[in-house]
Amino acid sequence: MNFENKTAVVTGGSRGIGLAIASKLAKGGANIAILYVGDESEGLKAKEELLQYGTKVEQYFCDVSDFDASKQVIDKVIDEFGGIDILVNNAGITRDKLVLNMDEKDFDAVINVNLKGTFNMIKHTYKHFMKKRYGRIVSTSSIIGIIGNAGQANYAASKAGIIALTKSVAKELAGRGVTANAVAPGYIGTDMTNVLSDKVKDAMKAQIPAKRIGTPEDVADVVAFLCSDDAAYVTGEVIRVDGGLAM
Ligand code: NAP
Questions:
Q1: d(CA 244, ligand 1 centre) in Å
Q2: What is the model's pLDDT at position 196?
Q3: Residue 84 and residue 114: Cα distance in Å, rounded?
Q4: 116: pLDDT confidence band, cut at 50, 70 and 90?
Q5: Is the pLDDT of residue 104 over 90?
Q6: Active-site residue 36, yes or no?
Q7: What pLDDT is recorded for position 42?
């Protein structure tokens, strides 16, 4: 896939699914701005890895749940890269508990990063894409946002919200050459799922029709398609990447 002369912002791009997406886009020739919030050395490691593809790569500290900080970073990226063509909203967290034990902080934290963070990034790139009459917005939902899950009410609500947000933005921007789509991964092997016990992992794997856990690259391949010019007539879509789990 060809992303030459395109600039992509990937939130949570320093590891897991985000890094796989950033790698796939960089391999296709895209300049990459990765946004991270954790360890700076992780961000630097990711930057080094991405630089092998020979495009411009920068890392920016940015808590996507912070409206003003997100705006500052997006403005900086536009200034330093000369514009943005692709926005990948990938940053996400979990705070799993039954609602019985879930406190307000657990609910707010997940909604603020996953859903409000996605809104913040879309809000701050919206006018830029409108003026350009071009843009690709791809946000990472989850099959949990479609089917729900006991112990993940906050996460499920945030990921369902991303789907509704995506479809609304798709309708607002379709006439301007800007697409907005979402991917809904199933069970993907990353830091987020590595914390689960082997028992839970085996039980989940047994339910997947494809009989294997997904890889970050499985998700990146679909995201890259949605970011490409080949997907110009695809908008408001949600593509499951789950080995058939939520069929
Ligand atoms: P991960 O390895 O835990 O990575 C999460 C990423 O989100 C990290 O890069 C992290 O940044 C970033 N992040 C967290 N809070 C942030 C904040 N406030 N501001 C900016 N960045 C923030 O998880 P993953 O599995 O790759 O997940 C990526 C996305 O896929 C998430 O939205 C997740 O919900 C979704 N997803 C994952 C699965 C799965 O099975 N793994 C399934 C469905 C959906 P740092 O590296 O700087 O900490």
A1: 22
A2: 86
A3: 21
A4: very high
A5: yes
A6: no
A7: 84
Residue 134 confidence (pLDDT)? 98
Name 143's Cβ contacts closer than 8 Å, sequence gap at least 6. Answer: 184, 185, 186, 240, 242, 245, 246
Long-range Cβ pairs for the range 103-112 (8 Å, 24+): 106/154, 107/153, 107/154, 109/154, 110/154, 110/155, 110/157, 110/158, 111/154, 111/157, 111/158, 111/161, 112/65
Residue 39 in this model has a pLDDT that exceeds 90: no
Residue 17: CB within 6 Å of ligand 1?
A: yes
Q: Which two tokens stand for residue 128?
A: 């830029």
**112 CA to centre of ligand 1 in angstroms:** 13
Please give the average per-residue pLDDT across 195-217, as a whole number: 92
The CA distance from 237 to 51, in Å, is 31
Kindly state if the Cβ of 112 falls inside 6 Å of ligand 1: no
Atom of ligand 1 nearest to the CA of 143: 43
* Degrees, nearest 5: CA angle 43-185-209: 135
Location of structure tokens 């890094």? 19
Nearest by Cα to 90 from 56, 117, 58: 117
Q: In the predicted model, is pLDDT for residue 43 greater than 90?
A: no
pLDDT for the residue numbered 115: 99
Nearest atom, ligand 1, residue 191 CA: 2
Q: How much is the pLDDT for 195?
A: 87
Q: How far is the CA of 88 from the centre of ligand 1 (A)?
A: 12
